């Protein structure tokens, strides 16, 4: 059963706190993935990785930074509501 959502002015509904936390995580994850792609590519190329090893290193860095940034963004959105 869906929880009732508070209605704002003009009849539109406000997102729930959980929806805001989810949205904060997704936004943070996307920004963290972009930053991880840049920093991961630079650091992996600097140590001499090529090919499949490079892709794995960049992917790992993207997932780590996306998860970290997404976690902090979701905490921030949770504090706001």
Automatic annotation (TrEMBL):
Main location as per UniProt: membrane
Spans through the membrane: 25-45
Keyword Nuclease among record annotations: no
Cellular compartments per GO CC: TIM23 mitochondrial import inner membrane translocase complex
Keyword annotations: Membrane, Transmembrane, Transmembrane helix
GO BP term, example: protein import into mitochondrial matrix
Localisation per UniProt entry: Membrane
Family listed: Belongs to the MGR2 family.
Cited function: Induces production of reactive oxygen species (ROS) which are necessary for cell proliferation. May play a role in inducing oxidative DNA damage and replicative senescence. May play a role in the coordination of mitochondrial morphology and cell proliferation.
Protein name: Reactive oxygen species modulator 1
Species of the source: Liparis tanakae (Tanaka's snailfish)
């Amino acid at each position: 059963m869906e929880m009732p959502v508070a209605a704002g002015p003009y009849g539109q509904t406000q997102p729930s706190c959980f929806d805001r936390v989810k949205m904060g995580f997704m936004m943070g994850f996307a920004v963290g993935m972009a930053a991880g792609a840049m920093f991961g590519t630079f650091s992996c190329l600097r140590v001499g990785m090529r090919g499949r090893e490079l892709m794995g290193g960049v992917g790992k860095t993207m997932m780590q930074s996306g998860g970290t940034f997404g976690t902090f963004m979701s905490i921030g959105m949770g504090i706001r509501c």
